């Protein structure tokens, strides 16, 4: 019979920077709020880049990332270790980004004409770009941004952030099968968008 | 694997790209690909896409992030602490309330009619001054370019058609001025984008760009909380909006290297910005120190509340979280519409404001309202005790726009201004321009008040002249000299015409004598 998994959260020999996420969270839950700083430092760039991948705008990244970490700070006392800290954090980031997208959608509805004309412009640009251009990355990102959110999010989490299917399912709060099917559907759509460029 | 239906093919390609196929399945699929070049090409497209996405550029690290976040968390925590039973301010208030009721109750029964009148008056006053209905920020969708332009020029557009602008001016020790200006269509609003600004000032390092971004982001929240609007078309402007403008310029200046700061000053000068940087050579202030010096949004703030008929200064509680929540719930469109409607009405009501405005609130004696055809301005005397809210590294001073004109006396075409300056005016024809150009600059310091491009008359103002008699003597001398010069010039022109006979002759013009 193995020993029960006890984490010595007060091990003074290990600096906070080297402690595991779970140890830091336990310290946090026991009242040592300062350890949150180490969790933030560990994941701030990942969260910022995830938000940047979703919106492709650097302007809003820090504001949204700040809100994500505030939510995490508020929710951490109730963290039950049923998932890893970073998938939990990603879940908050994804949900916050979805809220922001919804908000933008409402705003876009009122300025429909502008959106329509700007999106036409983008498509034109895309068609004139060849797949071998230096702009290839930008072209791919533009195509990715055109995918519906439910297909785009798994691709971002898989191809940009390198999460596993299980982790993506945890972040998106869905079944692994759903993740797989959304990934395959999303990629098929992406391929259809990129195909004419290769042919040209 | 001879034939696969499309949906299944999509699934297999996706799993293949993620290396999630079983070894046997993978081998079978690779054979299938070698027999189906079109599918192989599609796989290649997706593989390239996947490779490019995984190598996607990353944002530069933000060293300020934790600092900003820590301030936000601290603010949240302190708010929550206030709600704990032991420290709840309501307890103290409730105790004070009970005592007040006891004292007032006793007095009321002794002098009831007087108290009744007092309360009725107060009630009317409150009804006249406070905002009603839901209150939300007017600028809920500001971007960082808007924030930068407010920092640089102290102005921000109030309506969607760009016709009305909110302008703030800081008058050093006297107080500040908030103006709602109706803009003429040909008036250009100065605008600088953050990208252009960084380029012009020479902010090229990603780290410094981040600092700039953080400064603008921090001030954006403050600016959003500074102009509020109610659903009943009342608008509230933070009393210290002009100080916010000054603080923004100062913080930006403090974050720059001395060389960048002088470029920043040039931009301010070019655009006739309300502030000028003075501490040119002061060392750059560290980002952490700068960020700490920017104050957080206070709970209770003093706002100038403008309704259709009244202007008042009112203390208002600000709960930025609940305001964010309201914005979140998309209840903003109606408010914005109501506010824009009010802007239009205000433009119509400017004359009415001049005569019939009621100024209320506890600090109403500090408010003065002026209006003309295109603007109405609210002048606010500085509060008696200025809180050290914006005591950040102050590196700016208000730009001096026009020199003061204390006393003007017109004596025979010469306007004497005060004790040490005077001006004169004459028609800005060719000869006049020539006179101006030949004025002895060494002897007299002068400047053109009305430029010849804009006005048919030219007005020159002299500064620090020795005496009026000396000046008049000089004028006589100049006039005589100019007559000779003008005559000489006419003769020269005439002789040129004679030499060049192809050119049509122009009738000789008699020299004009300047009337001074």
Describe this structure in words.
The complex is a heterodimer of chains A (200) and B (516). By secondary structure, chain A is mostly helical. Chain A has helices at residues 21-29, 36-55, 61-75, 85-110, 112-128, 136-146, 149-160, 165-172, 176-199. With 516 residues, chain B is α+β, with helices and mostly antiparallel strands. In chain B, 47% of the residues lie in helices and 18% in strands. Chain B has helices at residues 6-17, 23-35, 37-54, 65-81, 89-110, 112-129, 144-153, 194-201, 206-224, 241-254, 258-270, 287-293, 320-328, 332-348, 350-356, 430-438, 468-499; strands spanning 135-137, 155-157, 164-170, 175-182, 227-230, 235-238, 275-277, 300-306, 310-317, 358-361, 367-371, 375-381, 396-398, 408-411, 414-417, 421-427, 445-450, 457-463. Chain B has a 6-stranded mixed sheet, with helices on both faces. In chain B, helix 5 (89-110) packs across helix 6, helix 7 (144-153) crosses helix 10 and helix 9 (206-224) packs antiparallel against helix 10 (241-254). The longest helix of chain B is centred in the last third of the chain and has 32 residues, at 468-499. Chain B starts with 5 loop residues before the first helix and ends in a 17-residue tail after the last helix. Mean pLDDT of chain B is 67; it is low at 83-87, 111-129, 353-357, 402-406, 417-421, 447-456 and 508-516. Classes of the chains: A mainly alpha (200), B alpha+beta (516).
Distance between the termini of chain B: 105 Å
| pLDDT averaged residue by residue of chain A | 79
Tell me which oligomeric state these chains represent.
heterodimer
Task: Report low-confidence residues of chain B grouped into runs of 5 or more.
Answer: 83-87, 111-129, 353-357, 402-406, 417-421, 447-456, 508-516
Q: Kindly report the average pLDDT value of chain B.
A: 67
Which secondary-structure class do the elements of chain A indicate? mainly alpha
Biggest sheet overview of chain B: 6 strands, mixed
Radius of gyration of CA atoms of chain B, rounded to a whole number: 34 Å
What is the approximate shape of chain B?
extended
């Amino acid at each position: 019979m193995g020993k029960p998994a006890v984490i010595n959260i007060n091990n003074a020999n290990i600096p906070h920077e080297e402690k595991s996420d779970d140890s830091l969270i336990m310290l946090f839950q026991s009242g040592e709020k300062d350890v949150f700083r180490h969790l933030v430092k560990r994941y701030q760039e990942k969260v910022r880049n995830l938000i940047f991948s979703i919106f492709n705008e650097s302007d809003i990244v820090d504001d949204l990332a700040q809100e994500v970490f505030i939510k995490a700070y508020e929710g951490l006392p109730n963290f039950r270790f049923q998932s890893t800290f970073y998938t939990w954090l990603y879940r908050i980031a994804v949900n916050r980004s979805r809220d922001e997208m919804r908000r933008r959608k409402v705003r876009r509805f009122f300025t429909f004409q502008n959106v329509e004309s700007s999106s036409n412009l983008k498509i034109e640009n895309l068609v004139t770009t060849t797949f071998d251009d230096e702009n290839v990355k930008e072209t791919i990102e533009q195509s990715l941004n055109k995918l519906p959110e439910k297909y785009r999010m798994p691709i971002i989490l898989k191809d940009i952030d390198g999460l596993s299917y299980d982790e993506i399912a945890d972040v998106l709060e869905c079944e692994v099968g759903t993740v797989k099917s959304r990934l395959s559907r999303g990629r098929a759509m992406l391929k259809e968008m990129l195909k004419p460029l290769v042919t040209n | 694997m001879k034939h696969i239906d499309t949906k299944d093919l999509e699934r297999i390609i996706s799993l293949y790209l993620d290396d999630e196929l079983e070894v046997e399945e993978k081998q079978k699929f690779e054979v299938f690909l070698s027999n189906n070049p079109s599918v192989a090409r599609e796989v290649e497209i997706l593989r390239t896409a996947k490779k490019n996405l995984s190598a996607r550029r990353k944002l530069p690290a933000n060293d300020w992030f934790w600092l900003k976040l820590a301030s936000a968390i601290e603010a949240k925590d302190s708010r929550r602490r206030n709600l704990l039973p032991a420290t709840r301010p309501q307890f103290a208030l409730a105790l004070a309330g009970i005592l007040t009721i006891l004292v007032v109750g006793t007095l009321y029964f002794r002098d009831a009619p007087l108290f009744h009148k007092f309360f009725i008056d107060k009630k009317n006053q409150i009804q006249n001054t406070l905002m009603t209905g839901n209150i939300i920020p007017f600028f809920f969708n500001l971007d960082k370019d808007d924030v930068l332009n407010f920092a640089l020029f102290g102005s921000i557009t109030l309506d969607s058609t760009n016709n009305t602008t909110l302008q703030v001016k800081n008058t050093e020790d006297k107080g500040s001025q908030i103006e709602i200006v109706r803009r003429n269509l040909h008036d250009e609003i100065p605008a600088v984008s953050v990208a252009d600004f960084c380029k012009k000032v020479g902010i090229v390092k990603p780290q410094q760009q981040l600092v700039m971004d953080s400064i603008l982001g921090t001030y954006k929240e403050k600016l959003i909380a500074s102009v509020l609007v109610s659903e009943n078309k009342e608008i509230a402007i933070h009393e210290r909006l002009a100080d916010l403008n000054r603080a923004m310029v100062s913080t930006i200046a403090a974050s720059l290297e001395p060389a960048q700061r002088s470029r920043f000053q040039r931009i301010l000068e070019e655009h006739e910005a309300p502030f000028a940087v003075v501490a040119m050579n002061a060392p750059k202030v560290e980002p952490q120190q700068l960020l700490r010096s920017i104050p957080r949004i206070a709970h209770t703030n003093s706002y100038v509340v403008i309704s259709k008929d009244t202007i008042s200064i009112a203390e208002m509680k600000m709960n930025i979280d609940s305001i964010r929540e309201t914005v979140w719930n998309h209840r903003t469109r109606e408010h914005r519409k109501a506010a824009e409607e009010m802007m239009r009405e205000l433009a119509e009501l400017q004359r009415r404001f001049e005569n019939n405005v009621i100024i209320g609130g506890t600090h109403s004696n500090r408010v003065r309202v002026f209006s003309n055809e295109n603007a109405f301005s609210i002048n606010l005397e500085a509060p008696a005790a200025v809180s050290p809210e914006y005591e950040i590294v102050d590196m700016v001073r208000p730009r001096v726009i026009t020199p003061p004109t204390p006393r003007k006396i017109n004596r025979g075409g010469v306007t004497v201004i005060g004790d040490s300056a005077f001006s004169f005016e004459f028609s800005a024809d060719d000869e006049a321009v020539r006179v101006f150009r030949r004025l002895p600059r060494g002897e007299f310091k002068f400047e053109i008040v009305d430029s010849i491009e804009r006005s048919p008359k030219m007005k020159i103002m002299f500064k620090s002249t020795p005496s009026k008699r000396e000046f008049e003597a000089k004028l006589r001398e100049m006039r005589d000299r100019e007559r000779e010069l003008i005559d000489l010039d006419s003769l020269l022109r005439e002789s040129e015409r004679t030499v060049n006979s192809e050119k049509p002759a122009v009738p000789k013009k008699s020299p004009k004598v300047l009337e001074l």
